[in-house]
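call fold(seq) -> tokens
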Amino acid sequence: MSVLDPLPDGGLIRKMWMGEAHKYRDHLLRLDTESRTRRFGGGVSDDCIRDYVDTSMWFDTIVHGFFVDGMLRGAAELRPLCGTVTKEAEAALSVETEWQGHGVGSALLERTLLTARNRGITHLHMACLAENRRMQQLARKFAAELSFSFGGVVGEVEAAHPTPLSVVREMVSDGHGFATAVLEAQSRLFKVT
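ret:
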């Protein structure tokens, strides 16, 4: 799947804003037990998720969301390691059960790799449980080197250097996502009245 391919149910992938932390929290809380375990590497409580979101939506973290009818149904988090000066980051993905297996994870990871590339991040780390075959396949699709240790798997992807074209691709994607979000919010506003 490419960023130009249609997403299931007319979905849209766009960057999330700091003021949308509640949407990210609600998405993570809706994950079924298995998806939640895969996302966090083990079982986590609702309170743990709330605390996590309160600390994850900071300036150095970029979250792309997969939205269907204004509802967040999948997310990819790009978090620089050791602050913003590093050339390494961690990526984490979550997709609600109904939208798994439809290319949403691939599209989210592709957008995350583009964003990492344009920020000069050269190494992207993705950790998952050893039994999380879906995430391992996704990592391999994007040429990640996988290493196995302590019941888990770490995938490392080397990001290409930014180019004028990659920067323009991100700008166009961001512009489209912003315009669509504004139109969607306006549409919901008119439905209420």
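The first strand starts at residue 12 and ends at 15.
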